[in-house]
Amino acid sequence: MHREVAIKVLNEELSDPEVSKRFRAEAITVARLSHPGIATIYELLQHDDQWMMAMEFVRGETLEQTIESHDGLSAEHAAELCMQALAALAHAHSMGVVAS
Prior knowledge:
The protein is α+β, with helices and mostly antiparallel strands.
């Protein structure tokens, strides 16, 4: 489809059927969500008994990289990041994914 994706792979060492069941349930649950703060799941695949998710590749820095590159975070920047995360959690909650 000519787009970059991220692949999340269930570690082969975690071949427990219960772990595989939770991994599949996570993919199905997250795929129901549509929010700018939540990566989109495109596909759930199984290859050679290994589960993986093809998901939206999000460019940018990790929180750790952001903190290091800015020599810490201002209170305003930290608050903005928290608000973005809380908005994504609120959306997931409204969809029944995050229980209170």
